């Protein structure tokens, strides 16, 4: 995604939360992540490093919340190499949590993503 803005790259990565197929998720990660990448959120025991770490986190997420759907709510806000997007997590068609994602990118893709979760 060398020509994509940080906001576009962030939205691409957030699609991975909804992808049940691990192979398709890996394709999204390959498209969105830079060579070096770190993911942090309050529900993770520690930051996840690299594409493999993110893939592992998303597999755990899908196993624990198979009925969850992540919906980006509005266009991301972008400032230089950083993008922020609001999202909502629905379970069984009902709002479950509100989220904020802040990502930093370079020409290779996202290098860091931090997610913040708030219960609905």
UniProtKB/TrEMBL annotation:
Q: Which InterPro entries match?
A: NTF2-like_dom_sf
Q: Which domain of life is it from?
A: Bacteria
Protein name per the record: SnoaL-like domain-containing protein
- Provide the species name: Jannaschia ovalis
